[in-house]
Batch of 3 targets.
Target 1
Amino acid sequence: MSQRRERDLSFSERMKLRLHAGMCRHCANFERQLPLLGEAAKRLAEQEDDHAV
């Protein structure tokens, strides 16, 4: 799931991921949380940059 945010997945990879996330509630939850985690990491990096100056 995190690779999907880093690169384009092949059709086969996307279908496997969709099938798995449809059956695995833990992965489905993680998939929903990824955008929030990415935004939090981005904001943390921005704060660290502001304090480094």
Target 2
Amino acid sequence: MSTRVDAYIWAIRLTKTRSAAGAACRGGHVRVNGATAKPAQPIVPGDEIRVWVNGRERIVEVTKTISKRVSAPAAAECYIDKSPPPPPKEIIAGQPRRDRGAGRPTKRERRQLDRLRSSGFLISLVAVLALALGACSSDDTPSDPNRPNTPEAPAQAGSGPFFGRCGGVTLEEVVRVTGFTGLSTTVDNTSVCEWDTTGSRTGAVASFNWYRGSPIGREEANVKLSRDETNKLEIKGHTGFIGWSQSGQICEVGIDFGADFFEWSIRGDARNPRPIDEICNAARELATMSIERAS
């Protein structure tokens, strides 16, 4: 029996309200079996759900579908929690916080916060030491008055190439490359495309996701936690990662473009498993096509 993903993540208490669960889906913060999920996405036992909430990634495997909120002990019986442990208190304490009344962060400030969060404690420690040394320096040489005293601006979101709808790849090409017969388009917008053989995500699925203004490092870390193997990858001079799980019949390829990145995710039908090399070769070929057709 299936249920909506927004109802499920609220019912098992990953979000405080049903509306917050729907907002997380619409914001692209919920993924089912590696593909971005809409609020009405049906889920069934065996599906993997990843939710970015409260500054951390929650990863759960569905064991029982429910759509009504239950107590914490009852909720725990409906999933297997595969989430990584929360970061140490030292890292949380070292992350920058915005003063009350300062208003919402600008886009630039949000990108800087994302980079700090994803860089880990070591980089935060180096930054603190650099500031301390700079403040204690005895060098009284005046600085260049023509040089601005603001930090270098990060790469602008959306400054990478334009990939076009569905990464510049057609449904017919996805069918040819993956070998999945019966694929139909279930999601088609400017940043996400998904093709499904069943319409309920219980069979083979292929998806393209284009992330603008989002660091690839966080996504790569999530893939490392949820896949059996993850390696660095280079296609047409562009670097990224590839991660796969034979048991889950899934392979994901992410390619970095500065402040942007895209990801191809291919999942085979677990009822008719294929060698994972075939699935990963399809993901690499589709990623290559997207790079070659970018403008």
Target 3
Amino acid sequence: MTLAERVRAAVAAVTDPELRRPIGDLDMVRDIAVDGSAARVGIVLTIVGCPAAQRIEQDVRDAAASVAGIDEVTVDVGVMTPDERRALTEKLREGRPARQMPFGPDSLTRVILVSSGKGGVGKSTITANLAVALAQRGLRVGLVDADVHGFSIPGLLGIAPGTQPTRIDDLMLPPVAHDVKTVSIGMFLRDGEAVVAWRGPMLHRTVQQFLTDVFFGDLDVLLIDMPPGTGDIAISIGQILPHAEVLVVTTPQPAAADVAIRSGLVARQTGQRVIGVIENMAAFALPDGTVLDLFGEGGGAEVARALSADGENVPLLASVPLSPALRRGGDQGLPVVLGEPDDIAARTIAGLAERLAHRGRGLAGRTLPLRLS
């Protein structure tokens, strides 16, 4: 290979941080010229004001400079023409029509809904950490924040206020946080808006658009953070994704367990399969060895037993203890599985992710909870 060809190969391997594919495959590399030890590299971005522009330019510069014999790099940055963008979007869809939901029963993406019977049980915190823990294990993970009225996923993942999906014609590329592609209604609110006061039809349309208009690309797992209870969105997603699997989150006290059972039963009525229960805010050990069960005990096991009553095995997959580190991570936008991986809650969630990652669809496991000491 000539020096220019080696530079082209190095630059073509740079990954677009939003599309997660090499820019060479996306036809973003243009002319490469080498004069002595100086290289001039031409690239095009998808749109004007591309939020990943600086990172792509720097990665291209670094890739070209890494080629032996190159001491100086100039990067010329342009923008795709409308025809080039159209060709790119068609390539990304791989022949699928626009606005077609790609997560149907024949999809290779495993869709897992994380639900709860009531609010305040830490469902969204568990979902955010589980998504990151799955991504840490090499899986391609997407996350839909379907809790429209109580959206919190962007904050839990540290996505800056005002961050929006990047639009390429009629494609929306979700922001990526900690290797998780994420979309939430919070990314679409205008300045000054903090409340979503919508009813059934608007909620249904919003969820449908998240699943059709947002381009996640090839995913191994799509997690959906469900709103608590059994309202409009639960019914809509049951209609759109009847083949999805469901994780039910509860806390140990009977008041939470009773309503958590209902959410699992409603999901099952739509054809979805409840694959396990996660107990959050379980007992934890104090420094003097005393075990504090602030929210009681046994709720997770009770939900698992109730949902297994018709013959299906619904295991208690994890019992996540109360953890100041888990709370801190949520407040700081740094999931505990990243920020404090040795914390007991982080290790329990990591173990849950490991178990889910290796079980695949139709998870059937032991009825014992995963609890690390």
